[in-house]
């Protein structure tokens, strides 16, 4: 938490009560992927005056400071997850039916590709987003059940 407050102050922002609420929601998130609307709905339970635009602005600031990552979903609303350094660069599996997001724990080939890109192109990679779109096991099972009936 202290890191967030320090980053805000170093970049000319204040830790407001509403930013604190939004930050706590992200910290407490069970699945780690929340949309701005989902964050706003939870935040409104704690502060009825907190507006959706405050959520968007706060998320934008947090993303710029590198403490959260925005996962843009194809033709859908973005979701956010906490960032905690190099280990947060990982692929995501996105179900095309239910929208479920699964973060792949292993970063697979990301570390090797960063080194190759840096050495070959003298380019410093700051962000990588690898997304695989498909069907999660639950939706696949439901689809099979419908075909059997």
TrEMBL record:
Record's cofactor remark: Binds 1 zinc ion per subunit.
GO biological process, one term: negative regulation of DNA-templated transcription
InterPro entries: FUR, Fur_C, WH-like_DNA-bd_sf, WH_DNA-bd_sf
Obligatory cofactor(s): Zn(2+)
Organism placement in taxonomy: Bacteria, Bacillati, Bacillota, Clostridia, Lachnospirales
Highest taxon above the source species: Bacteria
Residue sites binding Zn(2+) per the record: 95, 98, 136, 139
Family the entry assigns: Belongs to the Fur family.
Gene Ontology molecular function terms on file: DNA-binding transcription factor activity; transcription cis-regulatory region binding; zinc ion binding
Signal peptide: none
Species in which this protein is naturally found: Anaerocolumna jejuensis DSM 15929
Name of the protein described by the UniProt record: Fur family transcriptional regulator, ferric uptake regulator
Keywords: DNA-binding, Metal-binding, Repressor, Transcription, Transcription regulation, Zinc
């Amino acid at each position: 938490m202290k890191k967030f407050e320090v980053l805000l102050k170093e970049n000319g922002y204040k830790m407001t009560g509403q930013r604190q609420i939004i930050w706590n929601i992200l910290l407490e998130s069970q699945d780690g992927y929340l949309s701005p609307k989902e964050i706003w709905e939870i935040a409104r339970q704690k502060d009825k005056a907190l507006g959706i635009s405050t959520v968007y602005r706060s998320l934008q600031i947090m993303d710029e400071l590198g403490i959260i990552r925005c996962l843009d979903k194809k033709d859908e609303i973005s979701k956010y997850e906490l960032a905690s350094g190099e280990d947060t660069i990982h692929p995501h599996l996105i179900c095309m039916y239910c929208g479920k997001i699964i973060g792949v724990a292993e970063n697979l080939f990301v570390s090797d590709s960063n080194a190759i890109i840096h050495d070959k192109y003298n380019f410093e990679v700051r962000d990588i987003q690898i997304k695989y779109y498909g069907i999660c096991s639950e939706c696949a099972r439901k689809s099979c059940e419908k075909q059997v009936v």
